[in-house]
Design brief:
- The chain is an all-alpha fold.
- It has two domains: 130 residues, no CATH class; 188 residues.
- 80% of the residues lie in helices and 2% in strands.
- It has a two-stranded antiparallel ribbon with strand order 1-2.
- Helix 6 runs antiparallel to helix 7 and helix 7 packs antiparallel against helix 8.
- The longest helix is centred in the middle third of the chain and has 87 residues.
- The chain starts with 5 loop residues before the first strand and ends in an 11-residue tail after the last helix.
């Protein structure tokens, strides 16, 4: 390449750049007048355009870089010679400088053209590598979000990672490790979530069973008290009626003894008394049945009131549970937003979680989380 870069002097003499470097500054002036470098520039351009580099191999890429470097050496030589030619020619400084700049720019274009395939390849390679790194980082970002999501979202994330068909090229091992770690972490989170939900369901079942047991005991107590009350009232009425009847019988007996002579009249009064007795007995039985029915109604009303109270309590507890869950989900979202912001300012995830927990517990003065 160095032997090929020659400068044609006025006349028939042909000199290389190495030969020109031995000349005196005033001998170089003709080459740095207007268009004086055209012959050299054209020769370098023609040879550069004839050069064919192979961008597909490492050797070929190195060959392109080497050739571009040789062109740069010619550019540097012209720069040096141009400056030397005006050392003692102050009057020609402006024209020489202009031609020097034009020559350097022209050869810079040649250098850029020669190196363009390599430059394009390097930029494409840089973009390719960056895309793989971004994809790996995206897996890390997604795992942080999905671990706080519902189980269905976590399972969908595992399916997405498992079905990945991306050609990771030389990043394949790193991608395998990142996906395996993500799947393992997600599976662990799913198991932990299922265990927690099962524990909560069992706790709710036990609470429900206990509430139902207490309700049954309460209803049975109310029923027993009502039945006992009705029994006592019926016994009291029966005893009172019995006492009345016994008193009436004693009265009738005395009356029969007093009016023994009026046997028929006494018999009639006794028959009448007997009828009244039967009527009173029927009335007592009817009153007893009515009292029992009343007691049963009061019992059923008390049971219904207790059921209504229990239903209202369950409804209020359900509403409270829904509100607590909504508050938990809202707080989790706020914590995730803070976590992402802390990670974005280079705070590790572990430290970020410790900070969030401390703030939420009120352990850091003058700082609180607005939910």
């Amino acid at each position: 390449m160095e032997n090929a870069l020659k400068l044609i002097e006025p006349g028939t003499e042909i000199a290389t750049l190495e030969t020109l470097e031995t000349k005196q500054p005033n001998e170089l002036l003709p080459y740095f007048q207007t268009n004086g470098l055209d012959a050299l520039i054209d020769r370098i351009r023609q040879e550069a355009m004839a050069f064919k580099g192979d961008i597909s191999t490492d050797k070929g890429r190195k060959g392109i870089a080497s050739y571009a470097h040789q062109v740069a050496k010619a550019k540097t030589a012209i720069e040096k010679l141009g400056k030397a030619s005006i050392a003692d020619l102050k009057a020609s400084v402006q024209a020489v400088d202009k031609e020097r700049i034009r020559g350097v720019a022209a050869i810079q274009e040649i250098q850029d053209a020669v190196r363009k395939p390599l430059t394009d390849w390097e930029e494409k390679e840089k973009a390719r590598v960056q895309a793989h790194n971004d994809a790996l980082a995206d897996i890390g970002r997604k795992i942080q979000q999905v671990l706080l999501s519902p189980i269905a979202d976590m399972e969908a994330f595992i399916a997405e990672i498992s079905s990945d068909t991306r050609d990771w090229q030389e990043f394949t091992e790193r991608a395998k490790e990142a996906k395996a770690n993500a799947i393992t972490a997600t599976n662990n989170a799913i198991e932990a979530r299922k265990k927690h939900e099962a524990e909560q369901a069992e706790l709710a079942r036990l609470r429900q069973a206990e509430a139902e047991r207490k309700q049954r005991e309460h209803e049975e107590k109310i029923a027993a008290e009502a039945a006992e009350k009705a029994r006592k009232e019926a016994e009291a009425e029966a005893a009172a009626e019995k006492s009345r009847i016994e008193a009436e019988q004693r009265k009738q007996e005395l009356e029969r003894q007093r009016i023994g002579r009026e046997k028929q009249e006494a018999i009639d009064r006794a028959a009448r008394a007997e009828r009244e007795k039967e009527k009173a007995a029927k009335k007592a039985e009817a009153d007893r049945i009515a009292a029992e029915a009343k007691a049963e109604r009061e019992k059923q009303e008390a049971i219904q009131e207790e059921r209504d109270r229990a239903a209202e309590q369950q409804r209020q507890e359900a509403e409270a549970a829904v509100k607590r869950e909504a508050d938990r989900v809202h707080q989790a979202k706020i914590h995730n937003d803070i976590l992402a912001a802390l990670i974005a300012v280079k705070i590790t995830e572990i430290d970020a979680r410790v900070i969030i927990t401390a703030i939420a517990k009120g352990e850091i003065p003058h700082v609180r989380i607005a939910y």
